[in-house]
């Protein structure tokens, strides 16, 4: 029972909280209480084999606290950790007897779960000295396994020698298995929270970059530095880099040449100090960055320690006056063109570790440390590594910066044309207005996309808005399959007077392009947008032209959609009415929308994944709770039925023997009495000895009382038979199916079983039963289960009345239970049987009444109830019978339970 109670409490703790710290703290206290030892703790391993005590429970300070202390890897040797993992060894050490016992749970060779006796051997002397140094005489250790790896240990210490019972090992094994579940749940919660935080950061920075008509980079830079917990940051981008002579932008390398005026720098927080004089006034002008990215691979460069990287010697001098230790270089590129650098700085950190005694790494140290005094190890000027999640987040943020900078460069380009081409003022003004409108359109489409996280809605909004803004005949979304074929998943067709929509291109249309399949995405893998003004002027192969003619396509623009670095699909714009000369602004517009569409699809998929994980976790917890309740209900009903049936059977045999013999005894007595009367008539003058014997036996009284005694015995036997029949009627072991029964018989049988609790006792009066039975017909139901409901409700009423009398200290208080039955009517005019059971007990407040049918909830003291009776009754009445089970209660007035089930069930 203690082990089951421990399992239930720990399971409830896991259900109530997903916070691992709360769970392990409560677990150590529960296990120590069950085992009765001086200390129970949870020890978690680090990646390097060392570990830390993360939770403990100590009884009356009998052992010193080890909470928060770290232990080196050699305290638990590698071979011991391997045994914990491979065979799930549970270790028991008795210091006085110098014996160590191991109870394996898995076979080392086959991996099968086994159950063997505990195996004893002599414990190593150093292990004995180690435990003695901690004041421990008895130790029990069970491994905590998570994802087939040794996560930690559940340890029990006692300052005195003690024997370890098998149920204690089983209890500890049960606890570590539950802890594995709790660890998995906590990890899922942590991942979901981290993902949500990353999405919030991306949305916040994207809003700063795209919410205003003109670009504002300083707040976005500051928000990015804060998101990475940096001490400073830099944003170095191209500025006014458009070359009017060649009609293109200068490369970032050209802009970084000292003396160039096409560079703009934003800074925040701590910055490196460039020594003077220096030919490179900016950090980004040092050749180390150009050398690193000259291959054209623009991956993020995560530098955990600038002083440990030989390639950075040339710039280390600039960081010497600062506390900056780590650096994250984020290249900003658009269409494989570098437009700037975003740099995040982190300062050096100090690491403090609390060790349980100073650790000597010398391998010759074979004996354990004899002191567990606190030893603080402090490492200064340490570098903090960049995590994979941070690098991934940096990549997403870099895309937003690159997109915003590219938009800004387009804006600069329009401004430059307007300033330098005065002869075409009107033309350039129109172009600028058009570009501005398109930028506004981009912002408008992005805002509309971000208002929804439903993929179908995103496709519908995107295709409709793009189609209307650039006045195309059709805009669709094409998704690649695993073989680089694919199908269309979104479609919107604009109205055109010259096109009658005769093509069959639409949603779910499969289009497998052999060129894309052979090249695994072709040019689109390089984030290239492809615009075709006239399919007959591009030199396409005849089969390709035939395929396009089949769908009446004369011109098109295809923009790649990326999710992270993976090519997901294409944003397709088609012209069916004839050739069309696509403007550069329209192509850029399509590219920007495709990039934003990729971000929106990624966010929608992440939301769906998070929701699925949450639903899976909720479903798992619900199934666990439901299974547990059903097991308890099945066991309880089975045990009760077997007990009642057994008692009835054992009583029935001797009763049948007595009843069968009473008939003969009654006949014998009548025969003997008639013979005695005959003797008295034939011998009216008996001898003196007979008279004396008759007076001694009080013959007249015996003749008169014997028939009465036999009659009383017959009544007693009939009463016992009635009780046995009531027990059988209550258990209903022979009626597992739904049958027509008399509800009143079931209630009366339950009352007969509870009669001993209703009678008056010396210390308290009896409980009065008031029956107000209506004229109920036979009711189709599961009789045994319905009797269980009556038993639970009546038992609770009796418990409430008994506790109320004790609380009030009024022995003369008369308890009453009223049982009313009647015919009612449920929904859809279904005739029903209504049973109302009420008492004049203490009642319940609304807070308790709202939870009265919850599993494991009880108002009774600890040990007096399981909290499952009314929950099981609710399932029987509502789920099994399709009825109504409700409670009405008022404090100091009483409680009434309303049970209503259909008289007939329609299948």
Automatic annotation (TrEMBL):
Residues in domain Phytochrome chromophore attachment site?
Answer: 19-178, 454-596
Q: Which UniProt keywords apply?
A: Kinase, Phosphoprotein, Transferase, Two-component regulatory system
Name of the top EC class for this enzyme? transferase
User: So what EC number does this one have?
Assistant: 2.7.13.3
Q: Quick check: keyword Mitochondrion in the entry?
A: no
**InterPro entries for this protein:** GAF, GAF-like_dom_sf, HATPase_C_sf, HATPase_dom, His_kinase_dom, HisK_dim/P_dom, HisK_dim/P_sf, Phyto_chromo_attachment
Instruction: List residues traversing the bilayer.
Output: none
UniProt catalytic activity: ATP + protein L-histidine = ADP + protein N-phospho-L-histidine
Q: Which positions fall inside the Histidine kinase domain?
A: 646-905
- Report the superkingdom from the record: Bacteria
Q: Does the keyword Ion transport apply?
A: no
Similarity section: In the N-terminal section; belongs to the phytochrome family.
Q: What is this protein's name?
A: histidine kinase
Q: Which organism is it from?
A: Anabaena lutea FACHB-196
Q: What is the lineage of its organism?
A: Bacteria, Bacillati, Cyanobacteriota, Cyanophyceae, Nostocales
């Amino acid at each position: 029972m203690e082990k089951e109670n421990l399992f239930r409490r720990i399971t409830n703790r896991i259900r109530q909280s997903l916070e691992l710290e709360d769970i392990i703290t409560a677990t150590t206290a529960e296990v120590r209480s069950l085992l009765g030892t001086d200390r129970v703790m949870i020890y978690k391993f680090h990646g390097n084999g060392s570990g830390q005590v993360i939770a403990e429970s100590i009884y009356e300070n009998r052992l010193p606290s080890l909470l928060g202390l770290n232990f080196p890897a050699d305290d638990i040797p590698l071979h011991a950790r391997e045994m914990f993992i491979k065979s799930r060894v549970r270790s028991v050490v008795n210091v006085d007897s110098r014996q160590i016992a191991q109870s394996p749970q898995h076979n080392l060779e086959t991996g099968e779960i086994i159950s063997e006796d505990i195996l004893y051997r002599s414990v190593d002397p150093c292990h004995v000295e180690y435990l003695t140094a901690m004041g421990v005489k008895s130790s029990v250790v069970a491994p905590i396994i998570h994802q087939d790896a040794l996560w930690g240990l559940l340890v029990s210490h006692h300052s005195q020698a003690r024997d370890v019972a098998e149920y204690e090992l089983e209890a500890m094994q049960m606890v570590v298995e539950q802890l594995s579940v709790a660890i998995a749940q906590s990890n899922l919660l942590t991942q979901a929270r981290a993902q949500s935080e990353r999405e919030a950061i991306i949305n916040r920075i994207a809003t700063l970059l795209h919410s205003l008509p003109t670009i504002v980079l300083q707040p976005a830079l500051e928000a990015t530095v804060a998101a990475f917990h940096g001490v400073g940051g830099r944003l170095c981008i191209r500025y006014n880099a458009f070359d009017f002579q060649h009609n293109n932008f200068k490369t970032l390398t050209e802009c970084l040449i000292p003396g160039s005026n096409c560079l703009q720098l934003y800074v925040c927080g701590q910055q490196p100090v460039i020594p003077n004089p220096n030919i490179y006034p900016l950090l980004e002008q040092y050749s180390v960055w150009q050398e690193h990215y000259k291959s054209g691979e623009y991956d993020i460069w995560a530098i955990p320690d600038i002083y440990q990287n030989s390639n950075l010697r040339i710039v280390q001098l600039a960081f010497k006056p600062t506390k900056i230790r780590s650096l994250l270089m984020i290249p900003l590129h658009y269409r494989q063109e570098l437009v700037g650098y975003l740099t995040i700085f982190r300062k050096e950190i100090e690491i403090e570790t609390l060790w349980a005694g100073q650790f000597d790494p010398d391998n010759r140290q074979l004996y354990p440390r004899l002191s567990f005094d606190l030893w603080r190890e402090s490492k200064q000027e340490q570098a903090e590594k960049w995590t994979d999640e941070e690098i991934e987040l940096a990549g997403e943020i870099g895309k937003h910066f690159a997109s915003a900078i590219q938009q800004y460069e387009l804006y600069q380009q329009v401004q430059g044309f307007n300033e330098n081409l005065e002869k075409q003022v009107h033309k350039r003004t129109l172009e600028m207005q058009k570009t501005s409108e398109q930028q506004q359109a981009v912002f408008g489409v992005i805002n509309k996309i971000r208002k929804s996280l439903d993929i179908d809605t995103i496709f519908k909004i995107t295709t409709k808005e793009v189609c209307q803004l650039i006045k195309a005949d059709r805009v669709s979304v094409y998704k690649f399959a695993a073989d680089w074929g694919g199908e269309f998943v979104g479609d919107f067709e604009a109205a055109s007077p010259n096109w009658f929509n005769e093509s069959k291109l639409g949603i779910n249309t499969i289009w497998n392009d052999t060129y894309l399949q052979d090249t695994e995405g072709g040019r689109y893998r390089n984030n290239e947008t492809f615009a075709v003004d006239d399919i007959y002027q591009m030199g396409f192969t005849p089969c390709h032209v035939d395929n396009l003619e089949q769908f009446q396509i004369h011109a098109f623009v295809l923009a790649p959609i990326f999710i992270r670095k993976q090519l997901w699909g294409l944003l397709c714009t088609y012209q069916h009415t004839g050739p069309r000369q696509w403007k550069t602004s329209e192509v850029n517009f399509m590219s920007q929308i495709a990039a934003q569409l990729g971000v929106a699809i990624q966010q929608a998929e992440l939301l769906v994944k998070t929701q699925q994980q949450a639903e899976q976790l909720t479903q798992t917890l619900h199934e666990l709770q439901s299974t547990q309740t059903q097991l308890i209900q099945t066991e309880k009903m089975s045990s009760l039925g077997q007990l009642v049936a057994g008692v009835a059977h054992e009583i029935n045999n001797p009763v049948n023997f007595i009843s069968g013999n009473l008939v003969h005894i009654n006949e014998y007595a009548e025969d003997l009495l008639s013979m005695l009367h005959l003797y008295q008539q034939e011998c009216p003058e008996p001898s003196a000895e007979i008279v004396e014997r008759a007076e001694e036996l009080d013959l007249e009284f015996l003749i008169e009382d014997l028939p009465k005694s036999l009659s009383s015995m017959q009544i007693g036997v009939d009463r016992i038979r009635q009780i046995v029949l009531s027990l059988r009627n209550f258990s209903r072991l022979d009626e597992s199916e739904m049958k027509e029964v008399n509800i009143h018989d079931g209630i009366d049988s339950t009352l007969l079983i509870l009669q001993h609790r209703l009678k008056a006792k010396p210390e308290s009066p009896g409980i009065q039963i008031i029956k107000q039975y209506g004229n109920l017909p036979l009711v189709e139901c599961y009789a045994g289960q319905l009797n269980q409901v009556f038993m639970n409700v009546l038992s609770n009423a009796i418990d409430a009345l008994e506790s109320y009398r004790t609380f009030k200290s009024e022995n003369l208080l008369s308890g009453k239970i009223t049982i009313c039955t009647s015919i009612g009517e449920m929904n859809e005019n279904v005739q029903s049987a209504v049973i109302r059971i009420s008492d004049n007990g203490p009642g319940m407040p609304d807070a308790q009444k709202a939870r009265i049918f919850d599993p494991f909830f009880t108002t009774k003291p600890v040990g007096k109830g399981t909290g499952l009776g009314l929950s099981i009754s609710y399932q029987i009445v509502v789920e099994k019978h399709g009825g109504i089970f409700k409670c009405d209660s008022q404090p100091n007035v009483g409680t009434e339970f309303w049970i209503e089930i259909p008289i007939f069930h329609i299948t």
